[in-house]
Amino acid sequence: MVIRIDYTNVMAETIGERDGILREELLSFRHFVIETHARIQKEKERKFYFAKLPYQDTQEIKEFAKEISERFDYFVLIGIGGSSLGAQMLFESLKSINHNIYDRPKFFIMDNVDPDKFSSILEIIDIEKTCFNVVSKSGSTVETIANFAIVLDILKKRLGERWNEHLVFTTDPEKGFLKRFGEENNIKILHVPPKVGGRFSVLSPVGIFPAAVLGIDIDQLLEGAKKMDLVCSIEEHVEHNPAYLIAITHYIANMRRGKTISVMMPYSEKLSSFVDWYRQLWAESLGKDGLGQTPVKALGTVDQHSQIQLYRDGLRDKIITFIQVERRAEDFKIPDEIPEDIHYLSGHTLHEILNKELLGTKAALIKSKVPNITISMDKISPYNIGMLIYLYEMATGFSGYLYKINPFDQPAVEEGKNFTYALMGREGYSQKLEEFEELYKE
Ligand code: PA5
């Protein structure tokens, strides 16, 4: 295994019965797991369609991505939520932190409708050399369409008849404004598989097309996801199926031990946006019917100096997942010739200190009986990130059965979107506007 899960520190044997999980409690899910496992295998053509994505043919997408990366120096993704967080995570974890300084195509995301962010991107890119990938499954999300509408105007003014050559749409193959507009204007369209929801779509063209444009090995990414699919498909034992293990330990911690917050804390700057992706997956999938855990982002070691006081000594409402990277592409040794007072550090490397800090933090948490899990990977690679993505998608899907909710819809998100459409005067939303006015009546 290139990814390992250590769950010793969520068990009662380590942190006591008030906060920890009893072995027999974990094993008592055996029958539930066997039944649910069978249901999931049957659901892979429908609700669990994300499980099919690792097996797609990538030839066409790779060829098109190569063409785009050769033609353009800037690649801007216009999209939000499930339509941008996956690509951002792949970019930040698998490309150099300095990619946009030294490499090309330079990559930017227009997600928010914040004029400051919008102008900061426009300031840097050269429109003549920019490809805009507009990603929206529904083809109608206000933020995406607003940003696109301004970009469209700029493209038409600057490029004349060639404006459509600078656009690629990623959207539903059957419906929506982007599909219609794209077809009418001869714009290249990539498809979001209709059965895959936004936050489960990173391994579809939503995530793998931008990744391929940026030179990420998407086949390795999918290979890793396939490997995790295999592990999760053949293994139905609670303790041997990593996705079910994550789901059940979090469920017990949440529902029986009051751990309403799930902190994810990678000891790696590059994995910081993996947590942003996870936050959406966990929150939007499981936050239903008055249930669900609040996912919180932290970064090791930075948040040791900010959050750990609270995690150790504050409300006992948290379960923490650490992500550890065992090997780095490069490491730096602290020299021998350093002042006597700090000499205890000489000969050690930054990577070593990072790992010791993690060990120290875990020891401190064990002392305070705070449940924590460690996921270790040998290195950050497309293969391992593919494994990690699939692991969390499956853990989330399985959690839906535990909480008895549908993890694949997002009615509360849609509600907010619909009020926004109403407020912006979209046709067909007059009743929603009345509802809005009613809510604000004194
Ligand atoms: O997971 C989801 O469904 C949402 O977060 C969506 O991805 C987000 O609202 C963007 O939607 P769309 O892709 O339709 O523009």
UniProtKB/TrEMBL annotation:
Q: Respond yes or no to whether keyword NAD is given for this record.
A: no
Q: Which GO terms describe its molecular function?
A: carbohydrate derivative binding; glucose-6-phosphate isomerase activity; monosaccharide binding
Q: Which reaction does it catalyse?
A: alpha-D-glucose 6-phosphate = beta-D-fructose 6-phosphate
The signal peptide, as residue positions, is none
Q: Which GO terms describe its biological process?
A: gluconeogenesis; glucose 6-phosphate metabolic process; glycolytic process
Active-site residue numbers: 284 (proton donor), 305, 417
EC numbers for this chain: 5.3.1.9
User: What does the similarity note say?
Assistant: Belongs to the GPI family.
Protein name as annotated? Glucose-6-phosphate isomerase
What species is this protein from? Persephonella marina (strain DSM 14350 / EX-H1)
